[in-house]
Amino acid sequence: MNATRQKGSLMKFAVVVFPGTWSDWDCVYALQDLGQTAERVWHQESALDDYDGVILPGGFSYGDHLRCGAIAKFSPVMSAVERFAMTGRPILGICNGFQILCEAGLLPGALLRNASLQFRCQPQKLTVERLDTGFTNLCQPRQIVQVPISHGEGQYFAPESVLDELEEDDRVLFRYTDGNPNGSLRDIAGIMNSMGNVLGMMPHPERASDELLGGTDGNCIWRSIIQEWGSDG
């Protein structure tokens, strides 16, 4: 947590926009609906010091040329994201954002083409594996949440040694339940780094943040972040 802030309810988020990003406004709206400040930040920016949290949203950065996230990791803002991660403040990578975090080395593993070789866009049930993290502290024990997926390259892959390490360190926060939509090893849908402040997940919590969208299960993630890293103003 940012040492200059106390736990509470107010945060200022940077929602990073790469060429091809398209879930940025969804994240902005979800955070604003919860009373937070959220600003879209172009990928050419080189500093994120004025923010309390960073969101890397979904989309197709640089058209997914080469590999998903392979070009985005070279954008100037990613150096700032790496520095931001070292401060202990929260970073959430959603879908393409998860792919970018893996390509940049901020999270282990890679996201491969779905085992079905088909794009999957559907409601998806997830099991919350841990409650004692800044991303899940307001969830319920073994809670099942429904959060949509929308991806063609969402199959989480890592060597067995990395998978074992993730399990031993309890860094798997979400697993697919009632069916694995993409073939991810060990049903992994979301993981965090060893410091506990960087989360990557393929499902889209911003699309499960309003009853008009079909449900609000994603808000337990947003609210957990705000509870852990926010301030009282």
Structure characterization notes:
The protein has five helices and 13 strands. With 233 residues, it is α/β, with parallel strands linked by helices. The chain has a nine-stranded mixed sheet with strand order 2-1-3-4-13-12-11-7-8, with helices on both faces. Strands 5-10 form a two-stranded antiparallel sheet. Strands 6-9 form a two-stranded antiparallel ribbon. Strand 3 (53-56), helix 2 (76-86) and strand 4 (91-94) form a beta-alpha-beta unit. The two termini are 15 Å apart.
Q: Which labels suit this protein?
A:
alpha/beta, 233 residues, two-stranded antiparallel ribbon, nine-stranded mixed β-sheet, globular
Please give the alpha-carbon distance between the first and last residues: 15 Å
Distinct helical segment count: 5
Shape: globular
User: Which secondary-structure class do the elements indicate?
Assistant: alpha/beta
Largest sheet: 9 strands, mixed
**Fraction of residues in β-strands:** 15-25%
Residues in helix, %: 10-25%
Strand order of the largest sheet: 2-1-3-4-13-12-11-7-8
Q: Total number of β-strand segments?
A: 13
- Rounded Rg: 16 Å
Secondary-structure element series:
EHEEHEHEEEEEEHEEEH
What is the oligomer described by this structure?
Answer: single chain
Low-confidence stretches: 1-7
Summed over residues and divided by their number, the pLDDT gives a mean of 94
Tell me briefly what this model is.
With 233 residues, the protein is an alpha/beta fold. The chain is 21% helix and 23% strand. It starts with 11 loop residues before the first strand and ends with a helix.
